[in-house]
Design brief:
single chain; mainly beta; 5-stranded antiparallel beta sheet; two-stranded antiparallel ribbon; globular
Length: 192
């Protein structure tokens, strides 16, 4: 799953001076500039993503570590131990909210932490919704969906937002193989 949007913006690229000779003028100019980008594990990036709970529905995986979600969880049939279930998947024409890890007592399936230098607003988007479940991030404390048109409240630096996932399966066909859905989590500087 894609964890965040990386936007590298180059402000105005202008020449230090312009020299006009006679009546001739140029219609375009180009300049090469170098952009350096370094990637980090989800929990070490400018927008840190961390699992909450034992890693049954959300877990760090790979090198560098990335946060992945599996719904229902990998070991969902083992949680909670006092009331075991054996789900085969999510039902059709339904809306589910996963606001914590399987068997967890704390709220939040994952946390989004602002490790940057300025306050941000956070939201999620899904580019392909045709024939697949629609997944949207939400704030577990308020219950509000976090979309481009309705992002989170401003998240100050060094603060985190506890999140869950809402999954809408209306119009999605039943199948035995898993759906692979890509969710993009974006942080935008507050006020931009």
């Amino acid at each position: 799953m894609k964890r965040r949007t990386l936007m590298a913006g180059l402000g105005s690229l202008t020449a230090g001076s312009v020299l006009a000779v006679g009546s001739g003028a140029f219609t375009s100019v180009s300049a090469r500039r170098t952009v350096s980008v370094q990637t980090a594990a989800d929990y070490e990036s400018l927008l840190g993503l961390t699992q909450i709970g034992a890693g049954e529905r959300s877990e760090l995986d790979g090198t560098p570590s990335q946060l992945e979600f599996t719904l229902p969880g990998d070991d969902e049939d083992e949680y909670p131990s006092q009331d075991p279930t054996n789900p085969q998947g999510l039902g059709t024409d339904s809306v589910y909210r996963f606001g914590q890890d399987a068997g967890a007592e704390t709220s939040g399936l994952f946390a989004v932490e602002n490790l940057g230098t300025q306050p941000v607003q956070v939201y999620s988007t899904q580019s392909d919704t045709s024939g697949v479940p629609e997944v949207t991030m939400y704030n577990v404390e308020t219950g509000n969906l976090l979309t481009k048109n309705s992002p989170s409240a401003t998240l100050p630096t060094a603060n985190r937002l506890l999140c869950g996932l809402e999954v809408d399966t209306h119009g999605v066909p039943v199948r035995e193989t898993e759906y692979d859905v890509t969710l993009t989590i974006t942080a935008v500087a507050a006020g931009d």
